[in-house]
């Protein structure tokens, strides 16, 4: 936690490498101080087939999924920091957007939480 999932048009990878783009998202998220650096996960999915509005050629969207507990101001700052960093890397992009969504702690589970030795229900247990 958190997870940042990037959807983008395939042609974006001709402008920047996948690592440059994922590193930009990672570093922007890390720079907010909201997360432990070892917890941040970023992945990228390019699309070869898509439709955009007239005159638009490409897109880049970051879906951020974070554990509940941050306030709206923190989430807005996170979104703006990521968008600002990416804008510098992709100045001519048609669509660039970021949205942040909360995981609900009550309905979240992971490998650590189901470990029978994890009596404190620490979601980082054993990591």
How many strands in all? 4
Radius of gyration: 16 Å
Based on secondary structure, the structural category is: alpha/beta
Instruction: Report the uncertain regions.
Output: none
Largest sheet strand order: 2-1-3-4
Strand content: 25-35%
- Per DSSP, the total helix count is 3
Measure the end-to-end span: 12 Å
Broad shape:
elongated
| Order of helix and strand elements from N to C terminus | EHHEEHE
User: Largest beta sheet, briefly?
Assistant: 4 strands, mixed
The portion of residues assigned to helices is 25-40%
Average residue-wise pLDDT: 93
Organism: Chryseobacterium metallicongregator
Protein name: 5-carboxymethyl-2-hydroxymuconate Delta-isomerase
Short description:
By secondary structure, the protein is an alpha/beta fold. The protein has helices spanning 12-15, 18-31, 72-89, and strands spanning 3-9, 41-47, 59-67, 95-103. A 4-stranded mixed sheet has the order 2-1-3-4, with helices on one face.
What this model shows, in words?
It is a single chain. The protein contains three helices and four strands; from the N terminus they run βααββαβ. It has 127 residues and is an alpha/beta fold. The protein has a four-stranded mixed β-sheet, with helices on one face. Helix 2 runs antiparallel to helix 3. It starts with a strand and ends in a 24-residue tail after the last strand.
């Amino acid at each position: 936690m958190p997870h940042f999932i990037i959807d983008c048009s395939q042609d974006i990878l001709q402008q920047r490498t996948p690592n440059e783009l994922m590193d930009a998202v990672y570093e922007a998220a890390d720079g907010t101080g909201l997360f432990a650096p070892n917890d941040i996960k970023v992945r990228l999915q390019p699309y070869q087939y898509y439709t955009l509005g007239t005159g638009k050629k490409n897109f880049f969207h970051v879906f951020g999924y974070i554990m509940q507990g941050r306030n709206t101001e923190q989430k807005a700052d996170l979104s703006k920091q990521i968008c600002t960093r990416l804008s510098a890397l992709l100045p001519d992009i048609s669509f660039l957007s970021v949205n942040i969504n909360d995981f609900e702690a009550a309905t979240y589970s992971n490998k650590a939480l189901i470990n029978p030795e994890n009596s404190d229900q620490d979601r980082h247990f054993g990591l």
